[in-house]
Amino acid sequence: MDSLIKNGYVFLPDGSYAKKDIAVKDGRIAAVGDIPDDFKAEETIDASDMFIVPGFVNAHTHASMTLLRSYADDMMLQDWLTKKIWPTEANMVSDDIYWGAALAAVEMIKGGTTCFADMYGPYMERVAEVVNQSGMRAVLSRGMIGINPNGEKALQENVSLFNDWNGAADGRITVMFAPHAPYTCPPDFLKKINSVAEKLGAEIHIHMSETKQEVEDMQKQYGKRPFKLVEDTGIFERGALAAHCVWLDEEDISIIRKHHIRVAHNPGSNMKLASGAAPIPRLLKDGVCVALGTDGASSNNNLDMLEEVRLAALLHKTFLLDPLAVPAAEALKMGTEYGSDAVGVKDSGRIEAGYKADLVMYSMNAAEWYPRNDLVSLLVYAANSSSVDTVMVDGKLIMQKRHILTLDEERIKYEANLCAMKLTGKA
Predict the structure, then answer these.
(1) pTM of the predicted model, to two decimals?
(2) Residues β-bridged to residue 174
């Protein structure tokens, strides 16, 4: 449906903002500012007293992990994974994945996220179903662990996911291949994934150098740091999205730049799991594409991308003792434009003619939006996700006046809670 969005304040590609109208035609932005006289809108949206920004891109998450929110907290990463998370995930069935992803979709839409990059276990086709139903955009992949006896089966499931869903949902779904991490995927398994992904023309989504311990373990086991180890398997030739990238040295950064690896920074999860602070200002300065992700809702513990934008702006100021480390507008671009680039969604993440109409409209009625000295600063440092009023993907409204139009929110919360109680033994 062709739309005219009137009287809103628009976040512009140069980081500034201005009051402008937006014309949307055939799922894309047709004009910003001066609307052609011959443009005919089927609907008009009054965006008075609203701030319009590109939809957030959650560049790294595990959507169905919403079922494990608050199940295991305040633990070291490896203990958290091996003693609590992986054993419970092993018991997940198809409906758990569906309802967990549906709960994630509700949370993300209400928080202004229009696209997410998801890496999880079996039944990823159920996540694809949620994406199709919700109207969101997503980059999906089947997480693979090579040291697991089911590693080969997982690889074939990723192939099936690619064949069945890549380009589906009117082009809103893209499928990547997801070796979990170099410490769970030996080099020979990574080479096998690389060969399969190359034949299909698929890219890679992988965890890299999240903790100091894993970097040290890789050096002891292989005599190489994780980035060099993975580079030698050819995986990075495919085009890669690397999550975390906390513990980097000069060689690692050189490899990232050489292969144009896109980085998904997860400040909330890295802080909660005490993994460390990634050298994000350095990467940005070096021209690396740095996006933002929430990670899973069991290690964050929410899917609030506005919170990640704020944390990205604050964390590095603290870590570097530099108030200019990540300015507000740059943090906002990390969550929007850079996120679209990172997950490989073309012509998205900017409010500009020709770009996909993935838009979020924030109501500025709450007290924290006053006084109106600087709207970008207010959004990044003061506002809450509860200010999200209207969400549009591909020019179609999927939430209006805080009401999700594509999903049954109340049923999803009920069903997801039942699934979680059964998994954690609290039913």
Answers:
(1) 0.97
(2) 139
